[in-house]
């Protein structure tokens, strides 16, 4: 079987898992039944390839060809979880490509000079517990285990409880030994914008990553008083939704004031409304804000404006500084792929960014996305471009492990 056929075969296996029959979107959340199915699938594929499967202290899965305790290895892979009603490609494209690369190398008798690892990071999207890249943040020590275990989902279930319900221990924590096994990390990912598509079509379907914009998540809590939606006069109401609505508009305006030569974006994508009845005045609303820009000062400015308007309401949930990928690794990867390979920064966050922040030599490959749509069932990459991605990853691994 060619590498491309192998990729197509594995891709088809994953497609039905966690796909919602109504929306067509994926609902693959950390430590749920779907997540368990995906982890089992990953473990089975790795076993079939003869890789040694381990987990770090946060439950991220690592499958090794060779012994990374003797010498740090080249790691490829990504994540299998999704945002609510996400697309098929964000995450799985990198994991499936990595498995196909390993099979191809093994089938052709390649002898790696260093160990090769495939990773499946857990809880990259933070869809359930709110903090993105929870798996890599705890692994690297960027988030304490106490904080992670205390995060709760929409039903009030804590991560500690979710881990136990999944039959796991809540004894999680940073894992310097697991981190020390990574000599370099190359995460292949679907592009989440149209930059590659807008380039000359003669250029590559694959780009090398340069950097990740600074970005963060904040929550804003607004309090009102529950009452009857029909009998309470407008003048007597304390409706928490009104402040939340002002907050969403103010966030958009604060970003728009700064959006110019450098992009600046802000989104309120999630609300928790209590008591949550159509005919009840909201007694509390929590709004979650995501804000990003290539310029850190612009994001900070948005938060300063909002904090001035809504003092005491806003708290930071996560913050990731500008991340530049490792210069020498990025250059080497680009050299391996050819001097015309485009270089691309991204406004999306990735485990690769968290590892880079922790000092691991890291870079990324992006596969062209013809519409730029992502975090939606519409997310798509042409099969030929996915194949170009897996071939590019093969070239890169052959070079790094030669
Ligand atoms: O939210 C993000 O940037 C992501 O795709 N993890
Ligand atoms: Mn994503
Ligand atoms: Mn992703």
Automatic annotation (TrEMBL):
Binds 2 Zn(2+) ions per subunit. GO terms for molecular function: hydrolase activity, acting on carbon-nitrogen (but not peptide) bonds, in linear amidines; metal ion binding. Zn(2+) 2 binds at residues 90, 125, 375. Allantoate binds at residues 217, 279, 292. SUPFAM superfamilies: Bacterial exopeptidase dimerisation domain, Zn-dependent exopeptidases. Keywords: Hydrolase, Metal-binding, Zinc. Its cofactor is Zn(2+). Zn(2+) 1 binds at residues 79, 90, 189. Pfam families: Peptidase_M20. It comes from the Bacteria. InterPro entries: Amidase_Cbmase, Bact_exopeptidase_dim_dom, Peptidase_M20. Belongs to the peptidase M20 family. This is Allantoate amidohydrolase. It comes from Brachybacterium endophyticum.
